[in-house]
Amino acid sequence: MKHYSYILVIGLILSACTDTEHTGTVISVLEDKTEVDFIARPDPGTIKKGFGLDTEPWRSATFRYRTINSLQHNGHQQLHLEGGNALMGNQLERDVLVGEFLSEIDALLERPEQEETYRFSSIWIPLMEEIAHLQKDSLSHTLLYLYSDLQENNSDWFSVHRRADMELLQNKPEEVMALFLERSAQIDRNWQGLKVVVVYQPQTMEQDRRFGMMRNLYEELFGELGIAIEFESRTN
Length: 236
Description:
Largest sheet: 7 strands, mixed
């Protein structure tokens, strides 16, 4: 009987280690670069803490970063730390790998800011593209930070700078919702593995008002999509 108990215990331990190797945390950052005066920017300390590697260093970790500017958006930069096995691995070697991964996040996010501004701004489409990509990984806990004022300015389908579009948002928000939802068909709805965090710090009452209108729209949109979303005001 004891023999079978030992086998069962060892099996459970090995199973847990295998799960650790294949599950982890994915943090993605989309940073709106259409304005040069945004106060809130990605904070390396907050992002690194979100991986929880200080308490669970053997879990896998993936960091994705992408800037949004004009009607074109740049390709992603991605950093990845493979998951490991605590029972079979070397803790000192693992600590070095974790440290290198976190240092690479610092280097990526602390690059000098650009000073170029852009005439147009596409926020929703790259956001939906990123969510669709993140949904391919069903095992990891996923957090998506969107640093943006949400001021969609796409002449093809919706612009906050077009009076008719803003009047439509005020008077018939369901029609504007339909425009946005048409561009989210690739999303799996009611996906519980993801949370979106929008970070923006308005500097004027007018910026606060305009952001508030889009915030209300996003709350309704993500409620329809069944994906968790929250909003933060942060200064660095």
